[in-house]
Every structure is written in C-alpha cells, then in structure tokens.
Design brief:
About 85% of the residues lie in helices and about 0% in strands. It has one domain. The longest helix is centred in the last third of the chain and has 48 residues. Helix 2 runs antiparallel to helix 3.
C-alpha cells in the first residue's frame, strides 16, 4: 500500500497536476476570448446578439479541447509571467542574499522539505499571481473580440450596441489594470506572498543543514 501511494505521488509530481490546475485556469481566461475572436473572424457577419450567442455556443461545444489547450499553454504562460516578475524584482532591489532553491535541491529533496515548500508556500504565490495575470490578459483579449467584430465584420454599422460594449469593456480593463492589478494587487498581495515564500525558503534551508 505504501509503495502504491509513493507511485501515485511520483506520478502527480511528474505530470505537475497540482500546478496544472492553476496553470490551466489562468490560461483558460486567455484561450476562451482568443477562440471566440478567431471564430468570429471566420464566420458570417450577424447582429451583435446573434454573433455573441454563436461564439458562446462554439465555446461550449468545444470546451474539452479548450481545456487541453489551456493546460498546454498554461505552462508557457506561467513561465513567461514568472520571468517577468523576477526581472522586475531584480531591478527593484540589490543583489539578493537569499539561498537558492536550485543550489540546495538535493539537500531539500532528501529531507522532503522541497515538496513541503512547493505545496505549502510556492503554490500560494502561483495562485495569487498567475490566475489574476491570466484574467487581465483575458480581459484585453475580450476587448479585442468586440473591436474586431465591429471593425472587421461590420457589426457596428447598423447599431451602436457593440461599440458601447467594446468601449465599456476597454475602460473597465484599463482602470482595473492600472488602479487595482498594478497599483494594489501586485504591490500588496503578490509581493507580500513572495516575501513570505522567500523567508520560508531561507528557514527551510537553514533548518535542514
């Protein structure tokens, strides 16, 4: 029984299913509006309401494939977002004296502390950073969806509903990114969680040495 549990744990770790849930969710916010935009551009022009209903129906019918695509794309998105955050953090502070997780990998792996750190601390950072990050990009993609339908498919010639939706969506996205995500969420939530993770990593490495 113990060997079976160890095998299951190794499989979960190898396939990154724990991270896959967060990565898939963050990428899904982008994949859905991008798919709707591509479907809109490839379909015949209709009124705004019929076009939205048709695109939403296409998403529902192909949702399993979109989940698979989001799972694959999620790892690329998270790697890119992590690199951007690390570069910004390096520019805003002096050379870090915190011990490296990679340099102490073998030590932490033997003691079991690495898995504890990832599951108890680093996963919180991934959740509070990658998911909102995907949501913000997804909102921009949603704005592009409405504007592409109006500009390229001519949906705005007969009524102004689509234009109004597109303008409101763009204003909401801009204000949300500037006033909430960048000014508040990144500084007060993401940076705080990252500092807690760095402190926990340092304590774990010192504890197992």
């Amino acid at each position: 029984m113990e060997k079976a549990l160890d095998l299951i744990e190794k499989l979960l770790d190898n396939f990154n299913l724990g991270r896959g849930v967060i990565y898939t969710q963050s990428a899904l916010f982008i994949v859905v509006p991008v798919t709707m935009t591509l479907h809109l551009l490839c379909s015949k022009p209709l009124c705004v309401r019929q076009t939205i209903n048709m695109d939403v129906a296409f998403i529902k019918n192909n949702f399993p494939y979109l989940l698979l695509l989001s799972y694959i794309f999620g790892f690329t998105l998270s790697s890119t977002a992590f690199a951007i955050y690390e570069n910004k953090k390096k520019k805003g502070q002096a050379h870090s004296q915190n011990p490296s997780l990679n340099l102490n990998f073998c030590l932490l792996e033997k003691s079991g502390a690495r898995q504890y750190f990832v599951s108890e601390y680093h996963r919180f950072f991934e959740a509070v950073y990658y998911i909102p990050y995907g949501m913000m990009i997804g909102l921009w993609c949603l704005s592009i969806y409405f504007f592409s339908g109006l500009a390229l498919k001519g949906l705005g010639r007969e009524n102004t509903t689509g234009w109004l939706i597109a303008l409101v969506c763009s204003c909401v996205v801009s204000s949300t990114y500037t006033c909430f995500f960048k000014s508040y969420w990144m500084k007060n939530i993401v940076d705080t969680v990252d500092k807690v993770c760095e402190k926990a990593k340092k304590n774990l490495i010192e504890g197992v040495k």
